[in-house]
Design brief:
112 residues; mainly beta; six-stranded mixed β-sheet; four-stranded antiparallel β-sheet; 49% strand; globular
């Protein structure tokens, strides 16, 4: 199984980005997924999760600003990020909650 995150970039505070994470293999639709982020000098932390059935959950720091969704036909999980803040700057990763494998992340930089 491979995970490839994309969609990161440089954006001004208040702007938006949409991250995508494509998963290879046939297990995607059966598994809960998560988005994590790691800022420089900080530990990697959970941003949002979504169950195989589509139920989302969010860290308090992103509630009301970020939306996680998934397309089980395209084997892809998304993270729509609105009202971005400089403190959202980090490398963002997606992951199967059940497995320990980490794919390649995507850099998000929010300028003030």
């Amino acid at each position: 199984v491979q995970l490839q995150a994309s969609g990161g970039g440089l954006v001004q505070a208040g702007g938006s980005l949409r991250l995508s994470c494509a998963a290879s293999g046939s297990i995607f639709r059966f598994n809960d997924m998560g988005w994590y982020r790691q800022a420089p000098g900080k530990q990697r932390g959970l941003v949002a999760t979504i169950t195989s059935g589509g139920t989302p959950n969010y860290a308090d720091s992103v509630k009301g600003r970020f939306t996680i969704s998934r397309d089980n036909v395209k084997n892809t999980v998304y993270l729509q990020m609105n009202s971005l803040k400089p403190e959202d700057t980090a490398v963002y990763y997606c992951k199967f909650l059940k497995y320990s494998y980490w794919g390649q992340g995507t850099q998000v930089t929010v300028s003030s």
